[in-house]
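Appendix B, example 12.
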Amino acid sequence: MSGIEALQGFTQHMGTESGKSGEALGKNDFLNLLVAQLENQDPLNPSKPTEFTAQLAQYSSLEQLQNINSSMEALDSVKGEFERMSALSLIGKNVVAESNTFRFEGDPVELGYRFSESMEQATLYVKNASGRVVDEIRIDSPGKGEHFRTWSGPEEGGAELPGGTYTLEVGGKKADGSQVAGVSLVGSRVTGADFQGSEASLLTPGGSISLSDVSRVNNSTSSAGNSR
């Protein structure tokens, strides 16, 4: 049996044993195997240089992969700490999130929308948990960008809404009559942070908001565009 075959057989055996014990061979183990192969090869039938070079290449690849894996683990740890610090720094501030879901308990809510170009008309649809439209707001000639309005429920004469979860859908109509879906935005004040999930989330009176959904941070609440 050649040195290469002996090494491969021993590696397979060690891989089986390590699988049983829950431990995997590391780069130092493979290096020790290579050294042992050189020390114990048959002088009359030494390993071919090409085979030894291939083993060194495999060892180099293994080392690089392990170094990359270690770097990725360190990066994940830094990313998690950065998310925690970012979430904590937002407590007490007002954020704008790309979300179409919000809580309404009778107090005014900052609802917004965004278009990538100017519209001839926009319509905001507020729906209850059953999907029924409870308020429909038409806005003439909204410009491109973000716009906000303070929403306290339907206009005078409308039924008082119970507290609960509502959704906001935004539709726009261009000058040529084509329909465009707008981006729904919700403005909320951050009261706390939650780190129990895989991603940090912000706690607001209207519920939790994913940190990745936040598009803007304000020091104080402000409304842009029309208000009611």
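The chain has two domains: 3-89, 94-218. Residues 64 and 70 are 10 Å apart (CA to CA).
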